[in-house]
Specification:
Shape of chain A: globular
Largest sheet of chain A: 3 strands, antiparallel
Number of helices of chain A: 5
Helix content of chain A: 40-55%
CATH superfamily of chain A: Winged helix-like DNA-binding domain superfamily/Winged helix DNA-binding domain
CATH architecture of chain A: Orthogonal Bundle
Largest interface: A-B, 21 and 21 residues
Number of strands of chain A: 3
Strand order of the largest sheet of chain A: 1-3-2
Strand content of chain A: 5-15%
Oligomer: homodimer
Order of helices and strands of chain A: HHEHEEHH
Low-confidence stretches of chain A: none
CATH topology of chain A: Arc Repressor Mutant, subunit A
Chain lengths: 99, 99
DNA sequence: CCCCTTGTTCGAAAATTTACGAACTTTAAT
DNA sequence: ATTAAAGTTCGTAAATTTTCGAACAAGGGG
């Protein structure tokens, strides 16, 4: 289908990660991925247009938060737990547990 | 001079805090405050117009990140360490140490 | 081969954010 | 009383973000 670019997490400044997490849809997506491990876009608990969702997934991907792999017609997304937690310790835990 | 409103930190959703921290000027300000304890607006290491700075301080204040008190003609700003750290454990430490 | 599902890309509109000058308020200092 | 310093507020311009429909590509199933 497509090849996705995944940045080196070391190249992500903290404010970029913060920006990616400053939107409620993206926060909901992150929490769903953290809870379920790996989900296709159409399994995410958000009610927005496909084009909008695609944009949000791009923002999360470019901020180093998620990794996307292709499987058939769907793309499966997961949180880049280890790497991200190494770069920004505690941030994922915060997303998981706060509010 | 003016009375500043400071929200209950419990009422701040994580994404609002993230939004406040998604701007480089505001990140610089937070780091300066964390390093120096309490600083007036004109002592902050940013080179932006006063009106713009005032806006950024308002964003940080409304996100529960800082507290502002008046002293003479200046307003002294400090990070709301204890309360904020209770609501979002580890976030301040992240700002302090990351990137 | 045709159709359906999944997701991307390309506009373009709407909303939000950022930025700054100018005018103003308050306090302090001369 | 005058002047200067520190910030705020208002209006507005510029930049970014968010949103969506429509058109598109690629894979899977009949």
């Amino acid at each position: 289908m497509k090849t996705y670019e995944h940045p080196e997490i070391e190249s992500i400044p903290l404010e970029k990660a913060m920006h990616a997490l400053s939107d409620s849809s993206r926060m909901v997506i992150m929490r769903a991925l953290l809870a379920h491990g790996e989900l296709a876009c159409n399994e995410l608990p958000v009610e927005i247009a496909k084009a909008t969702l695609s944009h949000h997934m791009g923002v999360l991907r470019e901020a180093g938060l998620i990794v996307t792999r292709v499987e058939g017609t769907k793309c499966l997304n997961a949180v880049r737990k280890e790497a991200f937690d190494l770069q920004f310790p505690g941030l994922l835990e915060l997303i998981r547990t706060c509010v």
